[in-house]
TrEMBL record, chains A, B:
Organism whose genome encodes this protein: Pueribacillus theae
Protein's UniProt name: Bifunctional ligase/repressor BirA
Signal peptide: none
SUPFAM superfamilies documented for this protein: Class II aaRS and biotin synthetases (SSF55681), Winged helix' DNA-binding domain (SSF46785)
Boundaries of every BPL/LPL catalytic domain copy: 71-261
InterPro entries, A to Z: aa-tRNA-synth_II/BPL/LPL (IPR045864), Bifunct_BirA (IPR030855), Biotin_CoA_COase_ligase (IPR004408), BPL_C (IPR003142), BPL_LPL_catalytic (IPR004143), HTH_11 (IPR013196), WH-like_DNA-bd_sf (IPR036388), WH_DNA-bd_sf (IPR036390)
Family that this chain belongs to: Belongs to the biotin--protein ligase family.
HAMAP family (UniProt xref): Bifunct_BirA
Keywords, ordered alphabetically: ATP-binding, Biotin, DNA-binding, Ligase, Nucleotide-binding, Repressor, Transcription, Transcription regulation
GO MF: ATP binding; biotin--[biotin carboxyl-carrier protein] ligase activity; DNA binding; transferase activity
One GO biological process term: protein lipoylation
Length: 328, 328
């Protein structure tokens, strides 16, 4: 992992939070002049970092803003490649669209596109995804696994596991997974995942995993109140540090992804099942061709949902909106 | 099918080839002035159409050039949507790349990109594809079937059938198919197919089918002589009309594709098997992970090759280069 001077400086300040580090020591460790250190500190202040500077004692980090610029995410990020290249934009049409363009231009595996706001955020099946400024995390991750296209749904499930584990690690909050791509807390949606790929008919070229997370949203419109929640709401109103949350998710993702490439989907599947709220229950699946109600038996090795109807016939559900029956 | 005036004029001349049509009749049928007719005829002459114009008798088409501009292909094209929108460029990096861009911008199903020359033509697995000017057909077709990604290989096989049937119809020449994506004559390659898709993990957004065809190539470099041939070489040196060949392929493709969307892959599979040269033989499949030699038993409903090795174990081959053993 190659760090910029800004990232290294921020990492030093964070590691020594609440204590002073001398400008001399910083300039030696970073290999730049004291004037350069002073300039970088000024830039950090402009971004909302509170840094106290005292003659003779040095610099002390008092508080961090809730930013998700590359150096906010990358300082202290403990991964080999996931999130080590971050493309940040204040406003994008959609992070998926930009990530797809970068992937076609050859962007490296692990590259992440993050934005504060999406104008045309996309959900599954071409639906829109509300992505207001400031409170959420709207991002897309580029990976290039050497797998056939039919295995791509496995990556959606792997991502869901990484997010549940990352949220737990960063905030202590427990979430559950609703097949195929929603993360819920107490039945309300907190994260949506959109997996798209570019592929030859027998080989994936790139997979773009989009994640939309309601992090510090304080309230939802009436139409969404029963369906959506945010980490802040579930955290007794306390704000969540978005950069730390992303670090935790990237780190969990990388561990699971390396495991997946080495040993296949089996272990990921077991973890996924342990978080799944939709298995072992009576559910209704609305597909493009109709509606099936039945018992959710499990998922296949490809991530396909197995639904047993009342006549005992098992259906393989590739794509659907599912609803968990209240009686189950 | 909406035709331009140029396309309609060309269709009239082609239908009445070797006989005269009066300028008056043309102008009435096309609903434009006789001066406009004269201008369109002049443009066609510039493109290489030989048209005789006699006072009192009218215009007579003597010969057509071997062009593949939109009006060359679209006049007399009997399809509902395949090839009804054609984007022609003299030179492109690759027709796949341009078609992908158009697909992302919302291009309609059936849109075709054709070029006289590709600078960076692509084959399967990121290989290069030689696409010199003039003698071949380099094109990409955009379709939007509502299928899950794992069914995409079926479209490669469907395309192979359409090409074999189209070549037979336009030239009388019989070809055979080598799994997964080559069309051969007497064991030598004449067409390559590259199927790429953009997809959500459970739903195809667009499939781009690239076809590279050696049509009027007169000779190949020594390194390719044993591997490649052209329709001209196999047609006793007689030149093939490329626009007519494309029309035949588009028409066959549309028939098969509508059949596929309505009744599934079964019928296509039967046709494919009847043209397949690689089934029922001992073949060696080189995959990314190794080499397997065995008996090619058939293909699955998803287009996956079934290979039985010498120990009786059946392997599902998703992606490979195959070689047919000389002893089989």
């Amino acid at each position: 992992m190659v760090q910029s001077i800004r990232e290294k400086l921020l990492a030093m300040l964070l590691e020594n939070k609440d204590t002073y580090i001398s400008g001399q020591m910083i300039s030696e460790k970073l290999g730049c002049s004291r004037t350069a250190v002073w300039k970088h500190i000024s830039e950090l202040k402009k971004e909302g970092y509170e840094v106290e500077g005292l003659q003779k004692r040095g610099y002390r980090l008092i508080s961090t803003p809730n930013n998700i610029r590359p150096h906010d995410i990358k300082s202290n990020l403990k991964t080999k490649f996931i999130g080590q290249k971050i493309v940040f934009q204040e406003v994008v049409t959609s992070t998926q669209e930009l990530a797809q363009k970068l992937a076609q231009e050859g962007a490296k595996e692990g590259t992440v596109v993050v934005a504060e706001q999406q104008i045309k955020g996309r959900g599954r099946l071409g639906r829109t995804w509300e992505s207001p400024k400031g409170s959420g995390i709207w991002m897309s991750l580029i990976i290039r696994p050497n797998i056939p296209p039919f295995q791509a749904p496995q990556l959606t499930l792997l991502t869901a596991v990484a997010i549940v584990q990352g949220i737990k690690k960063a905030t202590g909050i427990s979430c559950e997974i609703k097949w195929p791509n929603d993360i819920l807390i107490n039945g309300r949606k907190i994260v949506g995942i959109l997996t798209e790929m570019q592929a030859e008919s027998d080989r994936v070229q790139s997979i773009i995993i989009g994640m939309g997370m309601n992090v510090n949203t304080t309230s939802f419109p009436d139409s969404l109140k029963q369906k959506a929640t945010s980490l802040l709401i579930e955290n007794d109103g306390k704000e969540i540090n978005r950069a730390q949350l992303l670090q935790a998710i990237f780190e969990q993702f990388e561990i699971l992804y390396i495991e997946y490439l080495k040993n296949g989907f089996e272990v990921i599947k077991l973890r996924w099942e342990s978080y799944a709220v939709s298995l072992g229950k009576i559910i209704t699946a609305r597909t493009l061709t109709g509606e099936i109600t039945g018992y959710a038996k499990g998922i296949t090795d490809q991530g396909v949902l197995l639904l047993e109807d009342y006549e005992g016939k098992t259906h393989e559900i590739y794509s659907a909106d599912i609803e968990i029956s209240s009686q189950s």
